[in-house]
Amino acid sequence: MTYRKTKSDISAMFDNIAHSYDLLNHLLSFNIDKRWRKRTVLELSKYKHDNVLDIATGTGDLAIEVYNKLKPNGIVGIDISAKMLDVAILKVKQLKLSENIKFQQADSLNIPFEADVFDAITIGFGIRNFEDINKALQEIKRVLNKEYGTVFILEFSKPQNLIVKYLYNLYSGIIMPYLGKLFSGDYKAYKYLNKSSLNFPSGKDFVAILLKNGYKNIRYIPLTMGVATIYIAQK
Q: What's the distance, Cα to Cα, between the start and end of the chain in Å?
């Protein structure tokens, strides 16, 4: 898939847009991204969640939502972008959550934790950017608790309704990159984010990838007419 970027490309891209990432995330989604995270945390609340890892944590929004709603004993966020993590660290400091949420620069292909450590792993809008999705899914499975470990993946997907699909593709493919350039100065980053969303397997296609990697008890929940989807799978 030619839209894929290397790990270093992804890190550099997010470093470049880190300063405006939160503003654009909320603006371009009309704040619907906040509702998607809340729904992800609601699903997480139904499973064991004493020890949580948030992969591709970015500026920490999902990790913060998990802590505020569920108060797990421990939550760690990892990301390859140092500047995104700088924003996350400042954010939790301002919220007085620095003792509750820890951040670490790390790669999803080499997660720096022992096996069977985490009750739950969350990934919000990050898995489509992984350099090797299958290897990342194996790493995620490795660090999940072998008895009840569950992964929650929130990701953009392809709407099935033709009208919704047309309008979404028009907005995300043409309007969004120009707004991204206006606010962040980086047209290419938001054009890439659109291409990565369109090319990422969604629905049953992504379920097949989870199955291939040995996950079980898989279910998925389309959100906002299929613009995004939550995938839930156990080790």
A: 28
Which residue is it, tokens 């120009």?
Answer: 178
Q: d(Cα 184, Cα 38) in Å, to the nearest integer?
A: 26
The matching CATH number, chosen from 2.30.29.30, 3.40.1650.10, 3.40.50.150, 3.40.50.720, for 7-157+201-234 is 3.40.50.150
Extract the tokens encoding 34: 């906040």
Using the structure block, give the residue that is written with the tokens 């995104």: 84
Q: How far apart are CA 143 and CA 121, in angstroms?
A: 9
Alpha-carbon gap, residue 67 to 116, rounded angstroms: 21
The CA distance from 125 to 193, in Å, is: 10
| Half-sphere exposure for 62 (CA within 13 Å, toward CB) | 32
pLDDT tens readout for residues 164-191: 999 999 999 999 999 989 888 899 889 9
Cα–Cα distance for residue pair 26/125, rounded to 1 Å: 13
Q: What token pair was written down for 44?
A: 């997480």
Q: How many helical (H) and strand (E) elements, i.e. helices and strands, does the chain have?
A: 10, 7
Sign of CA dihedral 166, 197, 35, 93: negative
pTM: 0.94
Residues in CB range of 159: below 8 A, 6 or more apart: 165, 168, 225, 226, 227
Interatomic CA distance for residues 194 and 101, integer angstroms: 30
Using one digit for the tens of pLDDT, what is the confidence trace for 71-87?
999 999 999 999 999 99
Integer-rounded Cα Rg, in Å, for the chain is 17
